[in-house]
Amino acid sequence: MSEKHLFVIWPKARFAEARILEDLAKETRIVFKTELEFEGDAALAYRRFYGPKLPDEKRKVRNCGSGPFLLVVVEDCNPDYRTIDTGSRKPMFCNARMWKLKTRYRKWSGRKHRVHGTVTKDEFAIDVEMLTGHPAAEWEPGVPAGPVSPKLPEGWEAISSTGPLKTAPVRPAFRPLPIPALGNVILRDKYINDFFTAGRYLGMDAIEKHSTKAVASIGNEYKIASRMYAAAPDLVPAPLAWLYAKDGRSASFIAERIGGTTLSEALKRGLAESEADRFADDMCDLADALEKTGIVHRDLFADNFIVPADGGRLKTIDWQLAIERDGYREDPWVAKNWKFRYVVFGVNRDLGLGRWNDFAAMANILKSFPRTAKVDAAIAKLEAKAPSMTFSAPPSRGERTKLMLYAISLRFQMLLKRRDSEKYARLKRRFDTIWRKGKM
């Protein structure tokens, strides 16, 4: 049974356009082709088209160009679906013929991503509606009537009312921006986020995290949280949407809101042995999911675990600055604010600067639990696995010099604040992180 796909020849690949079109005519039936152009800023347009999977929209503009591009809709009369190695961590079940053509044309254009192509029916449905303004159903009988022009979304949904993890573009202007969206502001100015709001979204109690300081990290949280939710849906709040302003200067991540308390609050009141056993199992399952997905949370301490009021499993939150072990890419805000990386991520101070280990962090939390046989077994399991799960991105020589100067300034501040026990303790913790335990 035949199926439709699309190819996009981005501006800097158009020197190979004639060769690509000639090959497409041999391999497929060309249904439609037209020249299009994004309105406004090209970098933001790429971001709105690719969604959170695009790591750097400005680099995309440098590699692929701005200006007119060519869109081609084709019909593949002999789709060949199988699981293939795409070079990423996980093999993909897709139309191998379309993958082969996309790979070929990218090679001809000289850069890996100068040609875009769809390789599944779902991908075609999403992309063709964004780039032409017509849903896939209108393309079934042929070329839709009416003008063809890009209609890019202002956000991406991870969960829809019809099922989990249905990644699809939200209709343009589905709700007004600027944000906040949900209504009640519950927290302001926490590190790199402007505020948190709470309300209802897609029929669920939801919480929204909004940032103008680290916009890319909001997309990163959507991407990472979606992957973790797919791997361990009982242990991660459902990611609901990633939304961004049209000017590209602000973004929000919306997730299911879990009623309950933080694990740190539960530890203060005291855990029953039955709770300790359940949470130990949850942490071991989370560790398995982290290993499977290749994700490093980096900030696993008791405040980032939620104990649900309904007695359910521990939920892990705050994936905003998590990283991929095999594709490490630091958030631009964190890269610029180098102190944040080495001082705030303090859960593994004993490992040294720029070294993180989620397994060791969870083992340390479990050591504050009632020491049942199951808790001890979980600690042993995590500590045995920990040596192979350390992730390292140590400071550069320049950053190390800056950190040394910062540590010296902290030492002077400690002398000035020695009578203020709270401020002194905070300054000392930062100093120890950088100087003593950071192995400067």
Describe the structure.
The chain has helices at 17-27, 42-50, 57-64, 96-109, 121-132, 136-139, 215-231, 263-269, 273-293, 332-336, 338-343, 358-366, 373-385, 397-416, 421-436, and strands at residues 3-9, 29-36, 69-76, 81-84, 92-95, 115-117, 155-157, 168-169, 184-190, 193-201, 204-211, 239-244, 251-256, 260-262, 295-296, 305-308, 315-316, 323-324, 355-356, 391-392. It has 440 residues and is α+β, with helices and mostly antiparallel strands. The protein folds into three domains: 3-136, Nucleoside diphosphate kinase-like domain (Alpha-Beta Plaits, 2-Layer Sandwich); 156-256, Phosphorylase Kinase, domain 1 (2-Layer Sandwich), CATH 3.30.200; 261-394, Transferase(Phosphotransferase) domain 1 (Transferase(Phosphotransferase), domain 1), CATH 1.10.510. A seven-stranded antiparallel β-sheet has the order 8-7-12-13-11-10-9, with helices on one face. The protein has a four-stranded antiparallel β-sheet with strand order 2-3-1-6, with helices on both faces. A three-stranded antiparallel β-sheet has the order 14-16-17. Strand 9 (184-190) and strand 10 form a beta hairpin. Helix 9 runs antiparallel to helix 12 (358-366), helix 12 (358-366) runs antiparallel to helix 13 (373-385) and helix 14 (397-416) packs antiparallel against helix 15 (421-436).
